[in-house]
Every structure is written in structure tokens, then in C-alpha cells.
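Hi R.,

As promised on Friday, here is the backbone we talked about, encoded as C-alpha cells. Could you run it through your design pipeline when you get a chance and send me back a sequence?
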């Protein structure tokens, strides 16, 4: 509620300030130009009051307003202006003064700036200020002319207060609606800012993802090219080549190795090397344990004239060379098996022996 009152004050403050300066200048002009007896007699006092009112207005709007915007500060300022107006009215005839309508102004300003409660308090203060000087003159007031004049002036104050009440009520409703709209607008701004931030972050993330996707695509393409070159090189070798990992599982192979082992590509990928590569040296079986490194020793294994038995019991004589793959550390990360078909040389050797 206090936020609404401060917003109301900020909205109407400039208009009230301009109105007060116009009122001070108009009163000064009337007091010093209009030749009324009450103006001539009280001119110096009235000019002094207007001078202090002008100084207070200047001080209030230049010093107090920028520092304090509390409800009680605004009400205190309205009381000060009531005092200035009341002194002017009192000095120029009180109930019969031509300036008596000036008492309407603080009521209107109080209702405009402070709402219904401010309006009620302003009217109560003015009514008490009217009763105080009239207390010693109660016999005069209770006469018909005095009562008529008193009723007329107080009735006019009540009428102004009544009209100001409805104006203030309308202002209250409009300020509350404006306050709700401004709150919704602030929420909408925060949502818009958050949305922009999220959208901006999403755009940045999307750009990063797109960049990474392009980089990954380039890496995959490079891997595919390297794999193609690797397979081409393997297939260009005239010997059978089988590559194992550190656990002696088949990683890759070339076409010559498929022909030597007389197996299909699917078998090479599903079976272990010892199931496919059946080698004998005389009567001893040569398994992967024989040619792989043992006890941390890295060495190249080479054995000639081994018998390779395929799945259809075909026997091929081969030379076996096993080279360890060393990348990091001392233990091999895999093995390269080279199978050279020496069946023709073996037949020639046997023919020589038979001839001898």
C-alpha cells in the first residue's frame, strides 16, 4: 500500500508544486494590487506570510522531497500549508474573509496525495483550527446571522471534503490498477529478460554443438579415411596379416589371411585366434601363448616351416612372424601376426630330398 501512495505522490507532486507557486503569486498580486481595506491594513504581514510560504515551498521540493517520501512527511507538509492559509484567512476577516475558500485547497491536496485517510485528517485539522478562534465568540456564533455564516462556511468545507472523497476514491482505484499493471509489466520484463538470456545461452550452446558436430564429423571422416588407407595397405600385403589386441582378440586382418585360414570374414570376427590359427611345429601345437610376450618381456617371435591346418583339413606350410605393438610403457598393446605361405618352397625341398 505504501508503494501505491508513493507512486501517487510522485505522479501528482509536479502538478501540486506548479499549482502552489501559481497560488502564491496570485495571492501576492491580489494583496498588493486590490485596494481592499483588510489587504491594506495587513499587507506587510500577509506579504511576510507569503514570503515564508515561498521559502518553505522551495525548501520542501528541493531538499525534503528528494530525501524523504514517507506518508507522514507529506501530511506534515500539508499541515504547514494549512497553517499559512489559516493565518491569511484569520488576518483578513476569518469567516467573512474573501480568502476563506483557500481552506478548500489543503483538503483537495490532502485527498489527492494521501488518499481518504489523508483527506479525513486534513479536514479534522482545519475544523479544529476554525473552532479554536471561535470559542471566545460563541455567543456571536449562536446568533442567527453568525450561525448562518458559520454553517455556510463549514458546509462549504464539508461539500469540498465530500467531493474530494469521491475524487480520492477514484484516484485510489486507478493507482491500485496502475500498480497492478506496473507489477505485471515488471514481471513481464523479467520474464522477457530471462527468456532473452536463456535464448542467448541456447544460441551459444547451439553454435558450440554445431561446431563440435562439425569437428566430430571431420574427425570421423579422418578416421574413415585412415581406416580405408589402413585396410588398403593390409590388403596390398602378399602375406597373411592378423592384428591382435593385448588380450589376443582379433582386431583386423587382410584377405590373404582369410584365404590361408580358409574361413569367412564373419568367423574371423567371432572366433578366437587359437580356434582359427591351428599351427604345429613337428608334433607340438603352437598357440598364442607361445608367441605372445611373457613375464613382461617384449620380443619378436619367428618360426619357419609351421604346418597350418585349415577347417577343411587342408595343410599349408607357413613361416610365422609375430611382432609386438609397443605404444606406451614396456608391455605390448597388441601383436601383428604375419603368415607367409612357403608351401611351394616346402614341396621343392621334399623333391630334392626324394631325388637324392
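Update: got your reply. Pasting your designed sequence below so it's all in one thread:
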Amino acid at each position: 500500500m505504501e508503494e501505491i501512495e508513493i507512486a501517487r505522490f510522485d505522479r501528482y507532486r509536479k502538478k501540486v508544486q506548479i499549482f502552489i507557486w501559481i497560488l502564491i503569486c496570485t495571492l501576492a498580486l491580489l494583496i498588493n494590487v486590490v485596494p481592499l481595506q483588510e489587504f491594506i491594513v495587513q499587507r506587510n504581514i500577509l506579504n511576510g506570510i507569503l514570503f515564508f510560504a515561498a521559502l518553505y515551498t522551495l525548501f520542501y521540493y528541493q531538499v525534503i522531497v528528494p530525501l524523504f517520501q514517507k506518508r507522514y512527511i507529506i501530511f506534515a507538509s500539508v499541515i504547514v500549508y494549512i497553517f499559512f492559509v489559516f493565518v491569511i484567512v484569520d488576518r483578513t476577516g476569518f469567516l467573512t474573509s474573501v480568502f476563506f475558500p483557500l481552506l478548500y485547497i489543503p483538503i483537495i491536496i490532502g485527498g489527492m496525495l494521501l488518499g481518504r485517510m489523508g483527506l479525513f485528517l486534513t479536514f479534522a485539522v482545519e475544523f479544529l483550527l476554525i473552532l479554536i478562534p471561535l470559542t471566545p465568540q460563541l455567543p456571536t456564533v449562536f446568533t442567527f446571522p453568525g450561525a448562518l455564516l458559520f454553517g455556510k462556511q463549514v458546509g462549504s468545507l464539508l461539500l469540498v471534503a465530500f467531493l474530494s472523497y469521491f475524487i480520492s476514491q477514484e484516484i485510489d482505484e486507478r493507482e491500485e490498477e496502475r500498480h497492478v499493471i506496473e507489477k505485471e509489466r515488471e514481471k513481464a520484463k523479467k520474464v522477457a529478460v530471462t527468456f532473452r538470456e536463456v535464448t542467448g545461452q541456447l544460441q551459444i550452446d547451439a553454435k558450440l554443438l554445431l561446431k563440435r558436430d562439425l569437428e566430430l564429423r571431420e574427425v570421423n571422416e579422418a578416421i574413415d579415411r585412415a581406416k580405408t588407407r589402413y585396410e588398403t595397405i593390409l590388403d596390398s600385403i602378399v602375406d597373411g596379416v592378423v592384428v591382435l589386441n593385448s588380450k589376443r582378440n582379433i582386431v583386423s586382418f587382410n584377405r590373404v589371411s582369410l584365404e590361408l585360414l580358409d574361413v569367412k570374414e564373419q568367423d574371423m570376427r567371432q572366433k578366437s585366434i587359437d580356434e582359427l590359427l591351428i599351427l604345429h611345429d613337428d608334433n607340438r601345437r603352437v598357440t598364442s601363448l607361445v608367441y605372445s610376450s611373457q613375464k613382461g618381456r617384449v620380443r619378436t617371435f619367428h618360426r619357419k616351416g609351421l604346418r597350418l591346418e585349415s577347417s577343411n583339413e587342408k595343410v599349408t606350410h607357413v613361416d610365422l612372424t609375430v611382432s609386438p605393438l609397443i605404444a606406451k610403457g614396456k608391455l605390448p598393446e597388441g601383436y601383428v601376426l604375419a603368415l607367409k605361405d612357403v608351401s611351394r618352397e616346402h614341396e621343392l625341398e621334399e623333391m630334392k630330398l626324394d631325388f637324392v
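One thing I noticed while checking it: Strands lie at 240-245, 250-253, 278-281, 284-286, 301-309, 315-325, 334-341.

Thanks again,
M.
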